[in-house]
Design brief:
single chain; mainly alpha; globular
Length: 57
């Protein structure tokens, strides 16, 4: 099993969040709102999720 660094963990959590949001057929603007208001994620996850969300159309 690989050793998960904090950066890799944040990236994995951010990707999981975006997959969840995309599965619910929400527009990109809703993803950004959901990421911004989610109090259960760390700031590192939030920033990485914003990066991913802006790259995915």
């Amino acid at each position: 099993m690989p050793s998960w660094t904090p950066t890799l963990r944040a990236e994995r959590e951010a990707l999981s969040l975006l997959h969840f949001l995309r599965a619910h057929d929400q527009p990109q603007s809703e993803w950004l709102n959901a990421i911004s208001s989610d109090q259960t994620i760390s700031e590192a996850v939030r920033q990485r999720a914003f990066q991913f969300a802006r790259e995915w159309k």
